[in-house]
Amino acid sequence: MTNRAEDRLNQVKQLSCEQKRVLDELYEIIVEHLEDDNPYVVKLDGDAGTGKSVVLMALFKRLQLESRKHSDSPLYQTTNYLTVNHAEMIKIYKEIAGKEPFLYKKDIQKPTPLINRLQKNNEKADVVVIDEGHLLLTQPDRYNKFNQDNQLVELIKRAQIVIVVFDDHQVLKTKSFWNQQKMQSILKFYSHKEIELRGQFRVQAPPEVLTWIDNFAKKRQLTSYPQTKDYDFRLYTDLSQMYVDLKQKNEKYGLSRLISTADYPYKMDDRLHYIIEPGFKLPWDHDINPHLPWAQRPETIDEVGSIYTIQGFDLNYAGVILGPGITYNQSRNLIIPKPDKYQDFEAFKKRSDQSTNQQLLKIKSQIMMNAVNVLLKRGVRGLCIYASDSGLKGAFETLNANKSFG
């Protein structure tokens, strides 16, 4: 099976004009501020699928090539790291590093080990590039040996220049809860610049489909059935049929998987836990391979992936299961997440700085819709969506019957 995630991150020669412009701008910022007295921070914004990770990988390759090979470069013999707080993405980055003569696997680290090692050795990096910065912890996590309050702050303390990729619509846990206000409260203490990528490169769909997804996941509204043109977009009320159709896509194109919101029972133990709907029963992802990402294992066509195994990765066809916690109120035309039905209890651990139940409920609801946003933007060629909630299922039936809504 083609390693689409690795291929995508390696597409330096296929960068768009916008991506090349941003890549050059980031490089010039690094060179300009490498000798500053104080840290300099760049926040790289962009929605899922705009190519933030691709640009970041291209930038890091350039940094390490010049650091190790170009004695005439201002970056020669600089110490640089790429970090991401995502176990599956670390595998991909390390796999890429192992195939490049000027990249070392030790250049790629998760944030906590990198912070702790730099602190222990009283070292400072020249450049730290952070992918999926919205996954950085914003509170202590004793279990993972992070004892400070904010991973971004700790990385800035230990680097001359920090490039951080950020999308607050991909925040998935209360312990790493970010929004633009929290980010700005940190940036205001440093010289910094904000850059945004806008072009959509993962989902090869017409604008109508992308708008439909954003209306659903961000505005929480159900809108007219989109014009799909060459993109395969389908709404299902029968999960077993969606699974059959997706397996056919997998046989023809490969890399087609079921993925789901986290409102079905799951525990971190040695037992299988199942997603069960009428006529359908498949286990959650399990037996995670430490070296090979979940979607690249052929047997996982008979499993259902979680947000944690699929974030940051491409699928050819994504079959998204919207579980019973994603509900619909027809009279208000409003998608309503139900946090009490969410089974990812780790995602909802209460924070000391979230004092009211109303505040925590709002954050939980946002995390659930962020997960929906991420899941709906995995499919390159096509997207299938199943609704478990009866209200949403009924709305899907109406859309399928009339190809219009409201």
TrEMBL record:
Transmembrane segments: none
Domain Schlafen group 3-like DNA/RNA helicase: 44-389
InterPro entries: P-loop_NTPase, SLFN_3-like_DNA/RNA_helicase
Stated name of the protein: DUF2075 domain-containing protein
Upper taxonomic lineage: Bacteria, Bacillati, Bacillota, Bacilli, Lactobacillales
